[in-house]
Design a protein that fits this description.
By secondary structure, the chain is α+β, with helices and mostly antiparallel strands. It has 10 helices and 14 strands. The chain has helices at residues 2-21, 29-33, 164-173, 181-189, 218-222, 226-232, 324-328, 333-340, 344-357, 367-373, and strands at residues 78-80, 89-93, 96-104, 107-108, 111-117, 122-128, 133-134, 138-146, 177-178, 257-261, 275-278, 293-294, 306-307, 310-312. The strands form 5 sheets. A 4-stranded antiparallel beta sheet has the order 3-8-14-9, with helices on both faces. The chain has a 4-stranded mixed beta sheet with strand order 12-11-10-13, with helices on one face. A two-stranded antiparallel ribbon has the order 1-2. α3 crosses α8 (333-340) and α3 (164-173) packs across α9 (344-357). The termini are far apart.
Length: 448
């Protein structure tokens, strides 16, 4: 009898182990001894255990670095509302604004008053009818965006002279990514789909603009000459003007132009590059609106008025630092870092050193070091002082609709689509002549 009981016990144990291995629920001794629920009672709630998340890939350091770079920083933790809304904890990290609403793929604006800029061969709308009509599709979006351009601090200058992939690595270093073109546009125009972040009437005192063209020396710009870059700087400090959208995002149009990640997959020039420019710089006669974009500069392009800002996923979700096109093409972020010539860890080290000492100890003409540190501007740079813009008479027949996108004109002082822009490895633009009057428009990238 004792042997029969032992055999029966072994058989039951073996059957229980087989059931566990096949994925069935295993019952412990404590559960077996627990009282059964009364008939008709709801089933007990089971505790769900989350699966461990995969480890982040380790960035590949450039060949010049002997150190092994650690994994990228985790996304900053959500904090209280930074916009004074007083609604309790927000879904975005400190210094970012939550954008939650519908994005319209195509908006109709009616221009009531415009003027023509001869130097740039562009009609600029001065006043739109105070209404906007969505004639495209509605897309639900929820994301976080920096309140200011990089380094996302009020009172500092927007950082310029970064190539596309360098800006991307800097965003990745703080757990964020480059904004996409639609995210940037939505944050700029607000829920009312305004052509300007502040309304329907152009005001370059609110968002810095209408500075006259000043002919950059492109040889010096390519060398990152600190004195020439200081001379060309005509921007203002982040947050110093009332250029704020209804979503609480500052300095989108005017001041420094911005680079964003493309979401355009068309077969024409608009879908060729991952790099898209938006907002327009501080110059007169350019696209200082929320909707117009420039699609003709490749990822190796940089300029003395070109900046960027970062976006992130809300609600504590992990942010992939790659662009939509890079994810589609299955890029690793190691590849992005190799093109940028520095890693996320090196960006974090440079940020810490700059915060402690005010600089990174770069030599004046060390391009990589100064780009990494954000110290390309020379000490002689002076911020612009705003003055009342000149009065422009309206044209007899203003344009009926603001263009959704624009390509540069070869006869105007605009960057030419056919012009080769600097390649990522060399980081040098096509050089024309030493000094460039407005007539040499097709030779050099200028304001748009």
């Amino acid at each position: 009898m004792k042997l029969a009981r032992t055999a029966l016990t072994s058989t039951l144990v073996f059957a229980a182990l087989l059931a566990c291995a096949s994925g069935s629920r295993c019952i412990s001794k404590a559960e077996a001894a627990a009282p059964r629920p009364a008939p008709g009672a709801p089933p007990p709630t089971l505790k769900r255990v989350a699966a461990p998340s995969p480890a982040a890939p380790r960035p590949l350091a450039p060949a010049a670095s002997a150190r092994r770079a650690p994994p990228p920083a985790a996304a900053p933790k959500p904090t209280e509302h930074s916009d004074g809304a007083g609604e309790g904890p927000t879904s975005c990290p400190s210094g970012m604004q939550l954008i939650d609403g519908d994005y319209c793929t195509d908006v109709d604006h009616e221009c009531e008053k415009s003027w023509y800029d001869e130097s740039n061969k562009k009609t600029v709308c001065e006043r739109f009818a105070p209404k906007a009509k969505c004639v495209g599709q509605h897309q639900k979006k929820r994301y976080c965006i920096d309140k200011y351009e990089w380094p996302n601090r009020a009172g500092e200058r927007p950082e310029v002279m970064n190539r596309f992939h360098q800006a991307e690595v800097k965003c990745g270093a703080v757990g964020k990514r480059l904004c996409t073109e639609s995210e940037w546009t939505m944050a700029c125009e607000g829920p009312e789909l305004k052509p300007f972040p502040y309304g329907f009437v152009r005001d370059t005192n609110t968002c810095h603009g209408d500075i006259m063209w000043d002919s950059p020396d492109m040889i010096k710009v390519a060398r990152r000459d600190p004195d020439e870059l200081a001379r060309l700087w005509k921007g203002v400090r982040s947050g110093s003007l009332g250029c704020v959208s209804d979503y609480g995002v500052h300095d989108t149009v005017g001041n420094a132009d911005e680079v964003v990640a493309s979401e355009t997959y068309s077969s024409d020039f608009r879908g060729k590059f991952d790099s898209v420019h938006t907002g327009g710089p501080w110059y007169k006669g350019v696209r200082n609106q929320c909707r117009p974009k420039i699609y003709t500069h490749d990822e190796g392009f940089y300029y003395y008025f070109l900046s960027f800002r970062c976006c992130a996923e809300p609600d504590g979700d992990k942010t992939d630092p790659r662009t939509p096109k890079q994810r589609k093409d299955k890029w690793s972020f190691d590849k992005v870092e190799r093109i940028a010539t520095f890693t996320r860890e090196q960006v974090r080290e440079a940020m810490a050193q700059k915060a402690e000492k005010g600089n990174c100890g770069c030599r004046p003409h060390d391009i990589r070091c100064n780009t990494l540190c954000g110290t390309t501007l020379g000490p002689g740079a002076k911020d612009a002082v705003k003055a009342k813009p000149p009065h422009f008479e309206p044209q007899p027949k203003p344009a009926a609709k603001a263009p959704a996108a624009e390509a540069p004109s070869p006869a105007a002082p605009e960057p030419s689509a056919a012009q080769p822009t600097p390649k990522p490895a060399a980081a040098r633009p096509a050089l024309a002549r030493k000094t460039l009057p407005p007539a040499a428009a097709s030779k050099v990238p200028v304001a748009q």
